[in-house]
Amino acid sequence: MSIRMRGFTLLETLVALAVIGIAMAAAMRSTRFAIDTVTDLKARTVAGWVAQNLASELRAAQVFPEMGAASGRAVQGRQEFLWRREVGGTSNYSFRRVEIKVFLPERPEHAVASQIVYVARQQN
To answer: Residue 64 in 3-state DSSP?
Structure first.
């Protein structure tokens, strides 16, 4: 008389739980990577706006910038950024090359956005 029991053995249950645990860990890692990517993309987009705003302010002022470097802070989208502007000459004395770099305060050695604009001397 053998009675066949229905169900899973303890070993089968442990293997199934291990597989589910590994799958959940992989899903969590993938989700974390996606969140980091979105956060980085947001910071880069907003930093790009900071660089564009600085370039637009420079053009709107209609001033021929002095060569050299300047830096400051800007807040955009409730996030603070550091920026550095370097003005250099070109082969044509009537133009200046302006490079604007934007950084996150926690990583001031790595530019998250940069923009290069050329400013012309105003003719009277």
So the answer is: coil
